[in-house]
Amino acid sequence: MKLYLWDQAAKDFYKKFTSSEDTPTVLLVTTVNPKTVAGNLALSSMSSSRVFIDKDIQPTIDYFSWLSSNPEIGKQVNADEVTRVETMTIGQIFAYIKQEYAKVNTTLRYLCQKQNIFMSSLASTLLQEASFNCIATIGDVKHDSPWYYISCGGCHTKATRGPSSLMCAKCGNTNVSGEAKYRAEISVYDSNDQAVFVLLGDAGSELTGKQAAELVANYFEANQELSAGHQMPAPKL
């Protein structure tokens, strides 16, 4: 379930969260409005909502104590029973993205005015992730951009080239074991709209039947004279 905090509730949460010595684990929000977002139940704060974390008040203290005594309780939640992936058209996905950005921009402007917070530092935190099924026809595969990237072998985030090795900004690893992953841009359309979808990681192998790492390894094995920075052209499958 997702919780949306707006205006004063968002400001209160930010102050409490950033002032906590440890990462909070219990959040209590009073007076919320239940609604359905992309087919999933969500809770949205209102002007009368109040925010409490961890040991602010006795109810959160009691729940925090109960949660600490029952660490296995979280494993009993079946995510498949809680979240339902909804089938949407390209136009509906565009509308959802536009709606989410409008909400985020409103909250960011408020927080920046009140707290002198740099907007871009909070944008990625406030944006909500959502999963949809979208049925569309593939019109073309774009060839004007690299079709794969070298990822961190641990978290699969794009690795960056350091002075003598690959590094991962997310993991903090300065000696990454790189692995080729798909990053294919495909042009798709349905009966009303068109868009460009980006296939990352294993999603590309579902279309090609082969892993990107296998294709890249075979290419450089057959062309050993090429430098390490050479980009393999898109394969003909």
What can you tell me about this protein's structure?
It is a single chain. The chain is of the alpha+beta class and 237 residues long. It has two domains: 2-133, no CATH class; 137-222, OB fold (Dihydrolipoamide Acetyltransferase, E2P) (Beta Barrel), CATH 2.40.50. Helices cover 34% and strands 25% of the residues. The protein has helices spanning 7-19, 58-69, 79-82, 90-115, 119-126, 203-208, 212-222; strands spanning 2-4, 27-29, 32-37, 40-45, 51-53, 86-87, 132-133, 137-141, 148-152, 160-161, 166-167, 178-189, 194-201. Strands 8, 9, 12 and 13 form a four-stranded antiparallel beta sheet that branches. Strand 12 (178-189) and strand 13 (194-201) form a beta hairpin. The longest helix is centred in the middle third of the chain and has 26 residues, at 90-115. The protein is extended, with a radius of gyration of 23 Å. The two termini are 41 Å apart. Residues 80-84 and 114-126 have low confidence and may be disordered. Pfam families: Rep_fac-A_C. InterPro entries: NA-bd_OB-fold, Rep_factor-A_C. This is (rape) hypothetical protein. Residues 132-226 form the Replication factor A C-terminal domain.
